[in-house]
Write a structure and sequence with these properties.
It is built from 21 helices and 14 strands. It has 605 residues and is an alpha+beta fold. A hairpin with a 4-residue loop joins strand 13 and strand 14. Helix 15 crosses helix 16.
């Protein structure tokens, strides 16, 4: 293993993408660490360093202790330590694990299996999926049919936040092993298909399309049905298009627009979704104009623009014919079938964990904003949303109003500074980036892009959210092979040429036009409706099981993930070709304008 502890943003983006405010991290980090990591390690008999952090907030981004994750992977059976699983780790940790893992003859492996079977209820994959579905139904019932009132007194708000976090922890307890299964089964099935269906890079991605039971996909289908209903009457369609999204949302609330009940019903089911992964962002229920804008965009498109669903049965038949053609074909087909079923089930569980968690996050947001209103009354904040720049302890203790306002101002300025930089993918304990000075790409005759990536953290001496954020970063180089070519991991097959559409903040989703190549650090499940008109996805830090990769496979559009520096390099590129079969993005035409690295990553007011 690497002698220095490494922290990975890519691993964190699998679960917690985008900028994170101090209050969000302070509330959720311990819950996620305790229920997703510590309890699972303890049950398996693996060392648990409870005093050492697993998640870390650095320059407004969450990082995961990749060194500890590598240690856990080293305890897996060697057959499960696949290339795909190792690719989630920094290269410095991968090289020590290649060919590693526990032998099937190692008695410690079986002892851990016995401990897990004895210590975890519903541990088998099928039982875990069934239990998760039960919990999700109970969560929806609790938050939608029996919603609790938001308390008014600060002490009561703090108590209710604690109760909500406890309930979230119980939810994560059920989901945790499902997430582990999703990673293991996905990468194991991919390794077997590479061996038994050689030369077909599309096999796994195609087999996983059309996975049932994914709530994000269900929300997108509900949106399509809603639009289809509004299209039935041309006068209704015109009425929905003649006003702004804000005016439509207001008319729906007042019942003053035809068929207003269709949007009301959609928000009743899916309105708890946050616009982004941070508590500072509103829910769809708070900002119905976001959904109204999606509806208007689809109403303007001609009918039939959505591609027909892929014939999954024919694909399976073709792929299984290859699997069955080799030696011991029947046994191989049975193994692939079992893994494919498990992969689909846990695939849906992993996605639905985010959907279910949004019920808890929406509740925490409402409680935080109520605490913010109390803070405004006593002069400790200028607006309720300022509380997201404080820590829980600062919010509910006798912090002087002037000191509270000072900390809010400093932290908001720090995040504005960090928002102009691309955060490093990997850092060490001191906050030094292992990669990050500059990248360049040749985008055609006479045009070379040279983009500075972050080489320095915020200046020392200013107060930071955490002490480690004041460290100085040392520059390193990131090579990009080829002329105008960026390489990453192929996440969804296909090739697409399109205009570059960079998404820095969720509000940028409103600018996506059909066929655009969407470029972002990572995606969020609430983006599904906007991404349905994208032509391709290019993601900086996401992995093969990230939400963006899953959505791209479902929509049938090519995607390349793990493209380091994509937002920076493609800022002055107008058009690209995305090859999701090999994991390549080719710059076709540069813009004549020159802009900054990026506009600041902002948060809603």
């Amino acid at each position: 293993m690497a002698s220095v502890r490494l922290w990975s943003r890519r691993l964190a983006d699998e679960l917690w993408s985008g900028p994170v405010t101090p209050l969000t991290f302070d509330l959720l980090a311990d819950v996620m660490t305790g229920h997703l990591v510590h309890r699972r390690l303890a049950v398996a008999g693996l060392p648990v360093e409870r005093s050492a952090a697993v998640l870390r907030l650095h320059q407004g981004r969450v990082y995961v202790d990749a060194t500890r994750i590598a240690g856990v992977i080293a305890e897996l059976p060697a057959a499960l330590v696949t290339k795909g699983l190792l690719d989630t780790l920094p290269e410095e940790l991968r090289k020590d694990l290649r060919g590693g893992g526990r032998s099937w003859f190692d008695p410690r492996l079986y002892l851990r299996c016995v401990r897990v079977l004895a210590g975890e209820p519903h541990i088998l994959p099928w039982a875990r999926v069934a239990r998760f579905r039960e919990v999700c139904r109970a969560v929806r019932h609790e938050f939608e049919e029996e919603p609790a009132a938001v308390p008014q007194a600060p002490g009561e708000i703090d108590v209710e936040i604690g109760r909500t976090l406890d309930a979230l922890g119980q939810f994560l307890d059920v989901a945790s092993w499902g997430v582990v299964y999703a990673f293991v089964f996905f990468h194991l099935l991919g390794a077997l298909l590479e061996r038994w269906v050689p030369g077909d890079r599309r096999a796994l991605a195609q087999l996983l399309r059309g996975a049932g039971g994914v709530e994000s996909f269900a929300a997108n289908l509900d949106l399509n049905h809603l639009v289809a209903e509004l299209r039935e009457d041309e006068s209704v369609r015109r009425r929905w298009l003649e006003a702004t999204p804000v005016a439509i949302a207001q008319a729906v609330a007042a019942g003053d627009v035809p068929r207003h009940e269709v949007l009301t019903a959609f928000l009743e089911r899916h309105g708890h979704r946050l616009v982004a992964r941070d508590l500072s962002w509103p829910t769809w229920r708070e900002r119905p104009e976001k959904v109204a804008a999606l509806i208007q965009r689809r109403l303007r498109e001609p009918p039939g623009v959505v591609p027909p669903p892929m014939d999954i049965a024919s694909l399976e038949q073709r792929i299984f014919a290859h699997v069955n053609a080799g030696p011991m074909g029947s046994l191989r087909s049975a193994i692939v079938r079992m893994l494919l079923d498990l992969c689909r089930e846990t695939y849906a569980l992993r996605e639905n964990m985010r959907y279910g968690a949004d019920f808890f996050l929406a509740r925490l947001r409402a409680l935080a904003l109520e605490a913010g209103r109390r803070a405004v009354e006593r002069g400790a904040a200028t607006q309720p949303s300022d509380v997201f720049w404080l820590l829980r302890e600062e919010l509910f203790t006798d912090l002087l109003p002037a000191e509270s306002c000072r900390r809010i101002s400093i932290r908001r300025d720090e995040y504005a500074h960090w928002g102009r930089e691309t955060p490093p993918l990997v850092i060490d304990d001191a906050g030094r980036a292992l990669a990050g000075a500059s990248v360049s790409a040749d985008c055609g005759p006479g045009v070379t892009l040279q983009v500075a990536l972050p080489a320095r953290a915020h200046q020392a001496g200013q107060r930071s959210v955490a002490p480690e954020t004041r460290a100085t970063l040392e520059p390193a180089s990131i090579p990009f092979p080829g002329a105008g070519v960026l390489d990453g991991e192929p996440a969804a097959p296909g090739r697409q040429v399109g205009a570059v559409r960079r998404i820095v903040v969720p509000d940028d989703l409103d600018t996506i036009e059909r066929g655009d190549v969407v470029v972002a650090l990572a995606t969020d499940p609430s983006w599904m409706g906007a991404l349905s008109c994208a032509g391709a996805l290019v993601l900086e830090s996401a992995g093969l099981l990230s939400h963006g990769a899953i959505v791209a496979r479902e929509l049938g559009i090519p995607a390349v993930v793990g493209v380091t520096g994509a937002l920076a390099v493609l800022e002055n590129v107008e058009r690209v070709m995305v090859d999701g079969d090999v994991g390549r993005v080719e710059c076709l035409r540069a813009t004549t304008r020159r802009t900054r690295l990026s506009r600041p990553t902002t948060f809603p007011s």
